[in-house]
C-alpha cells in the first residue's frame, strides 16, 4: 500500500511528497529542503567512505586471515549489510524524518511500547553516531601523525613520532574544523558532500591502479585470492575464528548509511530519495571497496613486515605499502606520502559528514524532548542550520576521545560502540517492523513487497550474530590488557539507557512529539 498523494510544493513549485509526508507525520518543515537524491547519497557514501574504513582497519584484516578474510569477508559483510539497508530503506520510505531510527521504532512498536522503544533506539543511535565521529576523526589524527613521521624520515630514519597528547590536539583541531563547516548553510554542505563522494570514487580508482603499478614487487593472483594468514601472534589458531575476527574491518567500514535517513527533512521527495540514498551508498561502497582491497593487496608481499611496529610507518600497513612502493621504484617515498594525503582528505570528508548526521539526530531527538536541555539543542539559526546541535556533537566526540589519554583499552572499548551500538540501533526498528508491526506496517513508495518480513528477519539475525562475534576475545591468553571490552561498553550503555528509563524518563518521555495540528 502506497502513501497518499499530496500537494505540498518545494522551492521550485513542483510537488514534494517528502514535505507532505512530514506534515502528515506531525512535524513542521523547519530545515531547508534543498538536497537532491545525489546529495543525500553523497552524505551516506562519504560516511561509509571505503578509503576511511579499509585504510584504518587494513591491519586487522591482514592479521586475521590476510587476503582471504579481506576479499571474501568483504562480500559476506557487504551482502548482509545490503539486507540491513534494504529493510531500513523500506521503513525510511514510510517515515522520512530526521529522527530516523528512533522515530521508526516508536511508530512500529505500537502505542504501548512506543516511548520505551524510541528511547532505547534513540540513545543507541546517538551514542553510536558520536562514537563514529570520534573514531573517524581520531583515525585521521593518527594518519596525519604517520604522514608527519614518514615525511621526516620514517621510524628508522629518525622521523618525528607524535605523543598521544599531540594526536589528541590534532583530533581536537579536526573536530573544530568540522563544526565550523557544519555551521554553514546546507547548500554549502551539499556541495562538500558531493565533492566528498566524487573524491572517494576517484581516489579509490586512482589508488587501486597506481599502487600495484608502481610497486616493484607484486603478489600473485593465487596469493591475493587464496592465501590465509594464520600467523597472527595472538594465540588464535582456529581458521574459522580468525576469519570471523577479520570481518571486523568490513563491518566497521560499512556503517553510517543511516545518514540518508537523518537528512530526509532536507531532501527533496525524501520518501523516494531517502531509500535510494541508503541503498546506492551501500551498493557502490561494496563495489568500490572491493576494488580498493584488491588493488592494495596485490602490493602485499610480506604480511609480517607490514605489521611490524619497527617499520618506517610504525606498523601502519597501508602507509607502509604506499611508502615502500614509491621508495622501491623512485628511491624516495614522496609519492606514497601524497597518496596517503588523498586518503586523509577522504577521511576528513567522512568526519565532516558524520558531524552533519550527528547534528540532525541531536536536533530531532531534542525536538521530541529526549535530551537534557532539549530546547537548546533543537534550535535552528536564520540559515536553517541546527547550530547548537552541531557544536554539541563536536564537543562530545572530543570528550570521548580523551579516554585515549588514560587508557587505549578504554578508548577502543568506547569506539566499539561505533559498530555494535550503531547496528543494534539499526536492528531495533527492523525487529519491531517484523514482529509488532508485521500486519499494521503501511509501506511507502519504496517497499520490498512480500519479501519485507523475510529480509527483515535476516537483517535482525545478522546484527545479533555480529554483536556476539565482535564481543569475542581477540587475543589469548586473556588479561586486563587483552580483554575485548566491547561487551562491557555496549552492556554499560544498555544498563545506563534502561536505568535512566526506569528511574526517570518513563515518567515524562512519551516518544516523538508532533508540532503541527493534525
Automatic annotation (TrEMBL):
* Compartments, as annotated in UniProt: Membrane
Membrane topology annotation: Multi-pass membrane protein
Q: Name one GO cellular component term.
A: membrane
Bilayer-crossing residues are 37-58, 70-89, 101-124, 130-150, 162-181, 193-215, 278-300, 330-351, 385-405, 411-432, 453-472, 484-503
Is GTP-binding included in the keywords of this UniProt record?
Answer: no
Q: Which UniProt keywords apply?
A: Amino-acid transport, Membrane, Transmembrane, Transmembrane helix, Transport
The protein's GO terms of the molecular function aspect are: gamma-aminobutyric acid transmembrane transporter activity; L-alanine transmembrane transporter activity; L-glutamate transmembrane transporter activity; L-lysine transmembrane transporter activity
Reply yes or no: does the keyword Repeat apply.
no
Please state the protein's primary subcellular location: membrane
The protein's superkingdom reads: Eukaryota
By its UniProt entry, which NCBIfam families does this protein fall under?
2A0304
Q: Which family does it belong to?
A: Belongs to the amino acid-polyamine-organocation (APC) superfamily. Amino acid/choline transporter (ACT) (TC 2.A.3.4) family.
This chain's protein is named Amino-acid permease BAT1 homolog
What is the protein's species of origin? Answer: Populus tomentosa
Which lineage is the organism of this entry classified under, starting from the top rank? Eukaryota, Viridiplantae, Streptophyta, Embryophyta, Tracheophyta
